[in-house]
Description:
The chain has three domains: 17-62 and 337-498, Multidrug efflux transporter AcrB transmembrane domain (Multidrug efflux transporter AcrB transmembrane fold), CATH 1.20.1640; 67-197, no CATH class; 201-321, Gyrase A, domain 2. A four-stranded antiparallel beta sheet has the order 9-11-3-20. Strands 5-6-4-7 form a four-stranded antiparallel beta sheet, covered by helices on one side.
Amino acid sequence: MAKPKKKKEAEKKPEPVKREGLRAVVKDWRVLILIALLVFSVASIYPHFENGKFTTALQFGLDLQGGSWLQMTFSSEVVGFTSQRSADDLAAALNSRLDAEVSQVAPGQLEIRKLIPRAELEQAFSAENATLTTYEQGVSRATGDDIKRILEEKINTLGTKDARVNLLTPVGTNVVRYVRVELAGVDINTARNIVGKQGLFEIRIKTVGNETEHVLFGNAITSVGNPQQDPTRMTWGVPFTLSDQGAAEFRQAANEYSAVTDPENHPISMLLDNVTVFSAPLDVTLAKELLTQDVSRLQASTGSGTAGMNEAQTLEIHLRAGALPVNVQVANFGQVSAPLGEYFKSMSFIAGILALLTVGLVIYLRYREPSIVLPMVGTNFAEVIILLGIARFVQQLDLASIAGLIAVVGTGIDQLVVITDEVLHEGKVPSPALYLKRLTRALAIILVAAGTVVVAMLPLALMDLSTLKGFAFITILGVLIGVAITRPAYGKIIMAVLSK
């Protein structure tokens, strides 16, 4: 009877792993990228002492800095309809009947910029031979974007820092229901004033030298249209309408100060809170009309191309003097005091440190080997620093974001354990070829897990749940940094550790 063959020598004595020193590990491109991003992140966070207090360049939301938030509803509605009449014809008829601004926002859909009960609207539509099919309080997405832009411009103009404006839209609809304004470091009364304040808008005409004369105030402007492009000259501009009295006063001043006969030397200036926001001579055609008649419908031209469009969008806000296209009502509000914000900030810092220490303790109890635990915890800590360094440019840190950071610490260490256990099979150091095979398998597992987390977080990141967006964004960003940067670098570092 034949004797059983002995096991292959290669299985008994694995190929010895080539030992790599610190210099060889640092020269690896994966580790170099990790170190470079770590240095960049520390520089962007910029920890330093200022006025005797330790501070950083991180952006903190009102949860951690103190401040106020307002959530407002719109005094308008978006309705669906059916009618044999054209949408423009029906909108014009309803505009007159309801004494409200009515415009088409989509096929079979109108926006009515005045809060009118559904029963009253049904009667108005019926009187105009149309049928009301749907009714939702709010504004169209385009109007919502205008409101957001106006509020952001107003807040920036007033010099308020760390402010966020978010539109809240229910799932499955294109109607914006709420707008939420968050102002860090601002009390609730100031927040109300900032949101509700209108600037002083004025039109003036240049006379002699640099002297100008007053023509109109903003209350003479009855309506402001959306920026539009002239199809013939391809220039952008903002149409606006003057009241009858305003049109008469504008014509009188234009003739008195020679703006119609010598427009180049007597340009029209528009000022908001005594700051010039637009200046240009009268159009030749308009100047001729003003010689003989009042003109109530005007347009301020801003030029062509993308620059002209951007200037037109900004000028529209100035013409409104900070007024929103629809009235808003405060539906809810809240405030976090500065001392409470500092307390939350301190507690968040302590929670982060405790999370890292707890993770380190659990890992030590598992491996009982400092040479494995230290690189693992160090890589996890580097990941958090890189995440903060990148998030500093795109995301304010609030309590939800801190929760995301702690979640990243947990998921990150889990994935590092997967790598370590996979390559250190049965407590033995594998050969280089087998090591790379196991590392590739571990990274594949991690990639699938990371994809699952990203898919799970995407709805929170995309939905208009402003309080949870920070959590979702930080979690997704942390997972992507881990998969692309820290996991491959850790694979190289742990290989050098295990080879010893």
